[in-house]
Amino acid sequence: MPSSVALRQQIETAFQHRYPSVLTPSPKTIREVVPTGIIRVDELLNGGIPVGTITELTGPASSGRTSIALSAIAQRTCEGSVCAWIDAKDSLDPESAAATGVSLNHLLWVRCSDKASPRPDRSRKDAQPWTRLDQALRATDILLQSGGFSTIVLDLADESIEHGRRIPLATWFRYRQAADRTRCSLIVLGKAPFAQSSAAVVLECHPSTVSSISGTVIRNFNYKVQRRRERFSPVTSPITSIDRKPPSSDWTSPAAWDLVKRASSEHRATAEHRA
Questions:
Q1: C-beta separation of 148 from 186 below 8 A
Q2: Alpha-carbon distance 255 to 262, whole Å?
Q3: Phi and psi at residue 178, in whole multiples of 5°?
Q4: CA angle (54, 72, 101) in 5-degree steps
Q5: What is the pTM of this model?
Q6: Distance of alpha carbon 30 from alpha carbon 40, whole angstroms
Q7: Are residues 186 and 53 in contact, defined by beta-carbon separation less than 8 angstroms?
Q8: What distances in angstroms separate CA 213 from CA 71, 260, 265, one per listed residue?
Q9: What's the gap between Cα 150 and its chain centre?
Q10: Are residues 101 and 76 in contact, defined by beta-carbon separation less than 8 angstroms?
Q11: Quick one: 124 exposed, middle or buried, by C-beta within 10 A (0-12, 13-18, 19+)?
Q12: In order of start, what are the domains of the chain with their CATH numbers?
């Protein structure tokens, strides 16, 4: 009785003209990635956030979603790349962003507002105004289609899960196509995954513990991040090895006041050196 290997070779030989490599898995291609600046997160992502795709950072409030996104933006803006932050609820703190290392001169901050102009609908005189979510989605579409941005963050962290899941799949598919064409990394912050199959990577964030000084002053925030989906792999061989990387990892972020303090100290040191 022929072995399974011999039987497979016979089948592949019989079908190689009509169905080449019928039982051979297709090779996985290398995807360009950009580091987030957080070592444990980059290890979990095999190097960083993939370029030209949608990456979702999900989880409850104070779970580290925004910290990861700010760190990733800081890496790109410090290189001179132009990024955008689409703020659906106008909740971004620019001082904290600057303390994280974000170059605000290279960041376009789109602040959605309740005071918006009515929808351009000629058939209705009482057309409803754009909601904050509508503005954020429209701004994302315009920036992705226009190109020129290395990373765009769509901040839906304060949006309800119900409203987020009502975003049409066609919208996410259009974002995915535009991101791939313009080589832009689209990072979506939310309480739950919204992009579904259009997302290449989904990271689920959770708060862990808080480190304090003398039990009163907060020094560090400890987070846990878990990889829920990763479509791409750096392996190029058809015969891939088993990924033994842990599905989750822990990382630590200093408190905002500590970041601001460090940034102020570095600024004073630089000014004194120049003087």
A1: no
A2: 11
A3: -70, -40
A4: 155
A5: 0.74
A6: 21
A7: yes
A8: 24, 17, 20
A9: 12
A10: no
A11: exposed
A12: 26-118+128-274 (3.40.50.300)
The first and second tokens of residue 257, run together, are 């006041």
> Pairing between strand 201-213 and 54-58?
parallel
**pLDDT class for 124, splitting at 50, 70, 90?**
low
Question: Residue 96 class from Cβ within 10 Å (0-12 exposed, 13-18 middle, 19+ buried)?
Answer: middle
Task: Could you list the beta-strand ranges (E) of the chain.
Answer: 33-34, 49-50, 54-58, 83-87, 107-111, 151-155, 185-190, 201-213, 217-230, 248-254
> Does the pLDDT of residue 19 top 90, yes or no?
no
What was the pLDDT predicted at 60?
92
**Average per-residue pLDDT for the chain:** 80
What letter would DSSP give residue 118?
Answer: B
State the DSSP H helix or E strand holding residue 132, giving kind and residue range, or none if neither: helix 132-146
DSSP label of 21: T
**pLDDT per residue as tens digits for the range 201-248:** 999 998 877 666 655 666 667 888 888 876 655 443 333 444 455 577
**Beta-bridge mates of residue 54:** 186
Residue 18 — φ and ψ, nearest 5°? -90, -35
Separation CA 80–CA 96 (nearest Å): 19
Strand partners, 110: 86
Residue written as token pair 């929808």? 119
Which residue's entry shows tokens 């601001």?
Answer: 260
C-beta separation of 231 from 200 below 8 A: yes
The structure tokens 């497979």 sit at 8
Tokens matching residue 182:
């313009």
Beta partners for 250?
A: 224
Q: Contact at 8 Å (CB) between 88 and 158?
A: yes
